[in-house]
Amino acid sequence: MWETGKASRIATEMRKYNLAILGISETHWTQAGQKRLATGEMLLYSGHEKENAPHTQGVALMLSNVARNALVGWESHGSRIIKASFKTKKEGILMNISQCYAPTNDSNDDIKDQFYERLQSIIEKCPRKDLTILMGDLNAKVGMDNTGYEDIMGRHGLGERNENGERFANLCAFNKSVIGGTIFPYKRIHKATWISPDHTTENQIDHICINKKFRRTMEDKSIKEALTSTCQEVLGLKKYHHKEWISTETLDKIKERKNKKAVINNSRTQAEKVQAQAEYTEANKQVKRSIRADKKKYVEELATTAEKAAREGNMKQLYDTTKKLSGKYSKPERPVKDKEGKPITEIQQQRNRWVEYFEELLNRPASTNPPDIEVAHTDLPIDVNPPTKEEIRMAVRQTKNGKAAGPDNIPAEALKPNCNTTDHRRTIS
Predict the structure, then answer these.
(1) What does DSSP assign to residue 208?
(2) What does the pLDDT read at residue 245?
(3) Whole domain around residue 278: which residue ranges?
(4) Total domain count for the chain?
């Protein structure tokens, strides 16, 4: 996500799948904070505490408008864990979500111990009556064998359990959390959450867990997909409105790239998969080149339009064109801080801090040595006589076009052609 524009692209994918909350690992962002995207989503992020720290690790939660309105508060726990709490439709029950990025299986044992100890302390603080979800890149292979773990996982995992998988399974067993990816039967291609760059190795290392009390709320998405695919076949899909500057040639290349991706997923042999991957990589490069060319052409056309509007004095068109060129800007939101300068993430605590701040600001004791300020003159030369005919004509002529009308609903363009006034009423005739 450190790459420019990556957050916006992730938000687009989030809306595409109609997700309310999206967990993100390896953001490579430093420090902790929240940011409102131009598209409306809110991003809660947590990274290394120091600003000049390396851009590694990092976790985040991206919230839709619905999730943002339900947010109660959130906590930053370093570069590997972030937790947020949300209101639910059930009164008195919160939903606590912890997004994680666990150390790899080859990491030092001390680093692993530190991570799981912190994760355990976070889970322990969540009330048992609440819905608790643990998700993210756990770098843990739990495998298919659920012997001894029948209460917290099924037999539909992938591969064999490794050391990280053992740690993760023990954590879930201790806290009575069910590992969702092992419950429902899926094809191997749908179980894998990580594929090596050469497409030779597939692993299931990303997981979503839920406390056993709410196990029945987990649903098999394939049932929904069967219904939606039937609806799609019978009713068709709503037409997608792409960006106005993308050419038909680029759209054709995007469609071709999508077909190449499908070939990779349907390859039966390793040789076919390698060949399909090479073709997809080339198609992806062509799409990116074509999009850059389309965007450059679009910007150049807008610049030409803006220059023409400036020469002709058409300020409305110049403003509209400049707004298109600049795009939407989203200023990062600064977190509310307490008196010691520490960020406050709980919504109610933020409100209390604002109340405290304004009470101190507006109720300061009177100064014992007030500044000596000279009294303003009261005899200012202000003309309070009725406006003259010429002043009215001048005011009408100087009124800008294209502005909203006043209470009388008469636009400036209607007044300018006949700008004569009567002697008595000082009105326009």
Answers:
(1) E
(2) 80
(3) 248-326
(4) 3
**Do residue 204 and residue 257 come from a single domain?**
no
- Residue 372 located in a structural domain: no
- Estimate to the nearest angstrom the gap between the alpha carbon of 235 and the chain centroid: 31
Is residue 252 in some structural domain?
Answer: yes
Distance CA 243, CA 221 (A): 30
Beta-carbon contacts of 309 under 8 Å, excluding residues fewer than 6 positions away, are: 315, 317, 318, 321
Beta bridge partners of 133: 97, 210
Q: Using one digit for the tens of pLDDT, what is the confidence trace for 55-104?
A: 899 999 999 999 999 999 999 999 999 999 999 999 999 999 999 999 99
Closest C-alpha among 141, 147, 173 to residue 160: 141
Taking the C-alpha atoms of residue 412 and residue 401, their distance in angstroms, rounded to an integer, is 6
CA atoms within 13 A on the CB side of 31: 10
Tokens, residue 188: 């191997």
Q: Where are the alpha helices (DSSP H) in 313-407?
A: 315-326, 347-362, 389-398
Residue 282 sits in the same domain as residue 218: no
**For residue 180, what is the DSSP state?**
G
Which one of 235, 257, 273 terminates a domain?
Answer: 235
SS3 407: coil
pLDDT at 117: 96
